[in-house]
Structure formats: structure tokens, C-alpha cells
Amino acid sequence: MELTVRNAACGYGAVPVLQNVSLTLRQGEIVCILGPNGIGKTTVFRSVLGFLKLLAGDIELDGVPRERIGAKEFSRSVGYVPQGHEPPFPFTVPDVVVMGRAAHLKSFEAPGVREYRIADRVLEMLGISYLREKTYTQISGGERQMVLIARALAQNPKLLVMDEPTANLDFGNQIHVLECIKGLSGSGLGVLMTTHNPDHAFLCCDRVILLTKDREIMEGTVDEIVTEENLRRAYGVDVKITATVTESGRTIRSCVPMLA
Amino acid sequence: MSGQAAEAVKHEAGAFDIERDLPEGEMTEREARFLREYRQNRRRSTVVFTVIAVLLVVAFLVSFCVGRYGMPVSEVINSLLRGLTNGVGSVGTWGSSEDTVVWLVRMPRIIAAILVGGALSVAGGTYQGLFRNPMVSPDILGASAGASVGACFMMLMGQGSVMIQAGAFVMGIFAVALSYFLSKAVGRGSNMVLLLVLCGMTVNTLFQALVSIIKYLADTESQLPAMTYWLMGSIAKVGYRDLLFFIITFVIGIVPILALRWKLNVLSFGEDEAKAMGVNVAAIRLVCIVCATLLTAAVVSVAGTIGWVGLMIPHLVRFLVGPNNKTLIPISLLTGALFMLVIDNFCRALLAYEIPLGVLTSLLGAPFFIFILYKRKGNT
To answer: What was the ipTM of the complex prediction?
Structure first.
């Protein structure tokens, strides 16, 4: 399965926030959108998911134009993981996860044994079975993010779209979520995510779309795009990129901001 | 959260498919345990459902005994059985005075109380899920205010009870439609919920002002007291003819809500997320608003404005069984019916004269609600 965005203009009303956005997301691949606050990362997301109409350009899923795919059908291929937030009602974790099955149920159908079995599988797969008796509003931010990932996986998608999956998480949980994302792509899912942290791109992404503060769009592999020069253009700050070799011999690069 | 998460995921090589081997595959021991535990957690709602249902049946029977013409439960049951065998339509020809009281005086009123309480609670629960806010009541979009204008206008015109009911019903629905289309006109597809509530508040204020104008114009000897009394809410004078229309609207309103109630869970996570889960948000929202409005307008046209029930009962039931609308809505239906039946009995029996229903729901409901909040202190 392949999601293609071609020369899209995204924005609210008639005013484009970003123009000429192009990207491709394939199964088994992690694509990361990097860029400063307010540059339009969320707008691109909302457009890809069909919450916003494109002002120009087109989106295709396996060559079929987005407009020709119904919301229900689309949600069976593309899952959405929002930022962890507190909902108004204290649903239990299994009840939240099983909501992802809505895409596969008939109009008047409620989830049954099959749906709860899937919820159990997903929780087990993500290693969060211990949350099965918990209330969604009473777990930590990191756990909540994992439950939202579980809910999206219950949709049985081929691609996942994740809005800042590491936002508002402590350091350890950020890494756990990134590990999980990496694992998911290993099992054949395509992941499109936004992040504020270039290090996260180094840690797990295959390709990067970098939005600069002048609304330029750069696309390519992590090593091509996340460079000292490009980060200066994107964020207006000076950074050095260093490399660390892990015990297993893998090189992980990271950004160090040059504070005076 | 553990780092094993990623490990576990990695081992599932190949294309991702969470449904693999599911329909045929034997349930693993773990899955079976998960389901068992889940059902155990849900058992609480089954117990609550049963208890409320039994209480409702008891309250139903006891309600026939309450009032100025007292009679024991055994006589009530006999009379009910006589009515069922002889045909209710001809009570006057075969019945004793007990039968007349049971079948002609109290039966319509008791049915009305059950339907009013049930309808308001379901409408309230539906709106609360829809607007993602546990503090929403069924008249949030102007149903009660609109219905009040309709009813008061008909009284001003000197019309009879049928026209008053019709006026209330039509204007109640008109007010909600106005809120809905105003919000559509003002908004550009984003944050519909907030706009709906704001437009509802505006329409509410507008129609309340209209009620004031009508009251100001009304004849102070006859019309004004009638309007004031109507606005307090009462089901003392409900007859079978009023009930027929009420029951039809009740069924039309309640069936789609019961059928869609699980989807309300998904909607309460917000428009974007619900869409991304493949739910047709606009359609479900419209159906739920139409149905909840039908229920509210039907209640107001039969019983006048009765506040507080639609907000309190779903809230209370949420304390008892949790927010899952799959159980919340049906249990709210029963609990609302039970609550209204009990309150109406107090209306009849507490003092030598009738107390308006709408007054008592607030007078008894508010302290009761505070009591519940107090009991659940720090544990919401």
C-alpha cells in the first residue's frame, strides 16, 4: 500500500499555509515531518487524513484519488494516532482500544467478542496488557499514547499517521514510543509522523520532510536532509551533528545545539 | 511501559495484519482470560440494570396506591388484571370506582411519568456524549425555550390543549433546527460542537425573551397563571389521547439512539478522531440531534418544562456504571423513568394539593445530586 501526496496546497479557507507538498509513504517505512512551530505540520496532517480539503494538488492511495475513497474505507488502510489528550469521559482501556474497530463494524453494530479479542491481541502485541483493567483517564501520558497506538492498530491499517507521538512525554517514554514505532514499521506498517526533535529522525526515520521557517520544503533520506546547514535554515539556530557508535557497532547521529 | 514492546512487535514479521487467524482460530487462553475479566468488570452494569428494572416495576405498582384515593397493592393488581381481561376501553361499563381510578386516572399519568423521565434522560445522555461534555442538558439547543414560546403563544391565542401541545412540539423542533442551521451558516466545518452550543445559547436567550413578551401581553387573570403553571411542568392532567402521540414520538426518537449508542463513544473523542476511525460523524450527529430533540419536544409538549432530570440522571448513571454508552443509555432510560415516577408520586401525595413536577425535580434532585457528589468525593 502506498500513500502519495502530489503538489498539495494545504490550508484553511482559501489561504494556503503550505504549497507544493509532495510525499510518498510506503509500508515498512518511517517518514518524519520536521519543522518549527506554526509552520503547518498539523495542517499537512489534517489534509492527508481528509479533515481539510486540499486547495490544490492531489492525494492518492494505491493510485486511487482520495476523494473516491469513503471515510470508512480509508480508515481501514490508514490509522490515525492523535496526541495523547484527556477525553471528557473515563472510558476503560479496552473500551478505548475497541473503538478502533468502528471502521469494520456495520452502521448499527456494536463490538462483540471478536472485537474484544482483537483489542486483547493489540494490547499484548504492544506489551501493555497490564493496562487492561485501567481507566484511560487515570494512566500516564506515555501509557495513554500507547493506548492510542493500540486503538489505531485495532483498525488493522497498513499505514499509520502519528501526530507528535513523543510530545509531552518524559525522556524514557519518548524512547519507548520510538522503539515501538520502529517495531511497527518492522512488522510491515508505514508510519508518517511529526516531531519537534531532529534526534528522533536520526533514531528511527527512513526519510524526512523538513519544513523551514521560510516555508521551503526539503525531502530526502535522513542523512541528506538533516544537516547542520538545513537545520539552521529550518529553525534559525546553530547546531553541530555528532555521531556515537553503539556497542553493537551501529552509528547513531544526534544534534548538539551550539549555545554560546 | 516496557522496552519489550518493540521486541514483541518485531517478531511479527511480514505484512501487518491484526486479524490474522482470527475467525477460525481457537481462542487462546490469554484471550479467554481477557474476555472473562472484561465481562467481570461489566457485571456491575448488569447488576445495576437488574436492580433498577426491579425497582421500576415495584414503583410502577406502588404508584397506583399513592394519592387521595388510597388502595392496597393487592387491589391494584386485581384491577390491573381485570382491565387486561375485560378490555380497558370500556372500563366505565364494567369497572368499580377502583378500576376507574387505576385505569382512567392513574394509569395515563404513570405511563407519562415513565416516558417523560426516560425520554429526558436518554436525550440528556445523548447530548452529553455528542457535545463531549457531562454538563449538557437536553434543552442546550433551545428545545425547551422554543416549546415554551409555542405553548404560551397558543394560550395567548386562547387555543385548547391539543393546539398548545402542537405549538410546543413544532416550536421546540424549530428552535433546535434554528440553532443547528445557524451554526452551519456561521462555521466553516471546524469546531462544530462549540458553535452549536453557542448558537443554542443564543437561540435559548432569544426564545426566552419571546416568552417574556407573550407573558407581558397575556391576560393577567386567566392566561398568565395558565402560562406560569405550564412552565413549571406537570403531568397531572395527561390523558390517553395525549399519550398516543407521545408514545409514537417516543418510539421514533428512542430507537435510532439505542441503535447508534455505541458510536456515541467514538464521537466523544472528537470529530477528527471519530472520522479517522471511519465513523460518519456528520450523519450520526444529525440523527442523534434530531432524535434527542424529538424526545425533548415531545416531553415538553405533554408535560411542560421539566429541568434538571436530563442533566442529572445520565451523570448519576455514569457514576454507577461508567461512561460506555452501550450500557449508559439503556440504564439512563430506566433510571430516568424510575426517578420521574417517584417524584410524581411526591407531587401527588406530599401536600393536600398538587406540586408542579418541574419544581420538585429540582427541589429533590439537586440535594440528592450533591449527596452523590459528596459520596464520590475525589473519585470522579
So the answer is: 0.91
